[in-house]
Amino acid sequence: MQHSNVGSKKLCNKYFIILLLGLLLLSACSIEIDTLQPADDGLLEIHFIDTGQSDSIFIKSPDGKSMLIDAGNNDDGQTIIDYIERLNVHRLDFVVGTHPHEDHIGAMDDIIEHFDIGKILMPKVTANTKTFKDVLLAVKDKGLKVTSARGGMEFSLDEGVNIDILAPNSSSYESLNNYSIVIKLTYGNTSFLFTGDAEKISEEEMLKNENYNLSADVLKVAHHGSSSGTTKEFLSAVSPKYAVICVGSDNTYGHPHKETLELLSDYGVQVYTTADNGNILITSDGQNIEIKRVK
Ligand SMILES: [Zn+2]
């Protein structure tokens, strides 16, 4: 009797462990993994390419128009080129360098040299770095020009895909981060906000402008989840369901910062980081949003 009791206890423990493992597996798999491939399903695609501690976001409209927001660090060129080419894309209709820091325009020279390019948008500010000079040289060599972007500009990426530029709103800032071009993309009833590395000052300017509608379903959290961006007031105005943080694991800045993650959690926002998920693909049919990991 005693023996069988021990046996059933052991059995019980075993089931408990299996159940626990099952639950762990389920939570780890809560975001579906898919293979990266060209799709012809008429969806808007937003790819947060995993370039580690830097930003690079590739957008493809339902009719095949394309936009790249930022181009990672200097050594991310091949990663970004390979990723975009696996989607069978060889032309970038719009290339946006949100601001002249290396982790945003690092490989932009490689991108400009490699692809057929439409328009290049950057804020009206210069940086005295080799990285920035390399970008300008690539633009010049290709016979292109940089369009200075600022808050209030708008254009269509494609029919039904609208781009509103919400920042920068001043012509002089102490921190280069505040020059970040902030883009709101709207497709049908779904919307996405890309904030570069905009900090509190820029967020306050956007909040003050009554012509801006900051609300969005998905927020690309500013500055890799640093506490310098995404104030309570800004998050409350955006009121996103989902947030993506482009960040490298074990980065020296400690990004994403605990305060930012706590704030996002307080607002009930579902957060996805590239450090945890690798490449993140968000698709929209104009009504519904789907989030996947792609390899
Ligand atoms: Zn950055």
Model description:
The protein has two domains: 1-30; 34-294, 4-Layer Sandwich (Metallo-beta-lactamase, Chain A), CATH 3.60.15.10. It has helices at residues 2-28, 77-86, 102-105, 108-114, 130-141, 200-208, 232-238, 258-266, 274-277; strands at 33-34, 44-48, 57-60, 66-69, 91-96, 116-122, 146-148, 154-158, 161-167, 182-187, 190-194, 218-220, 242-245, 270-273, 279-284, 289-294. The longest helix is centred in the N-terminal third of the chain and has 27 residues, at 2-28. The strands form two sheets. It has a nine-stranded mixed beta sheet with strand order 1-16-15-2-3-4-5-6-7, covered by helices on one side. With 295 residues, it is α/β, with parallel strands linked by helices. It contains nine helices and 16 strands. Strand 6, helix 5 and strand 7 form a beta-alpha-beta unit. The chain binds zinc ion. Zinc ion is lined by residues 55, 101, 103-104, 197, 223-224.
Write the layout of secondary structure elements.
Layout: H1 2-28, E1 33-34, E2 44-48, E3 57-60, E4 66-69, H2 77-86, E5 91-96, H3 102-105, H4 108-114, E6 116-122, H5 130-141, E7 146-148, E8 154-158, E9 161-167, E10 182-187, E11 190-194, H6 200-208, E12 218-220, H7 232-238, E13 242-245, H8 258-266, E14 270-273, H9 274-277, E15 279-284, E16 289-294
Helix pairs in contact: 2-4, 4-5
Bound molecules: zinc ion.
Zinc ion binds next to α3.
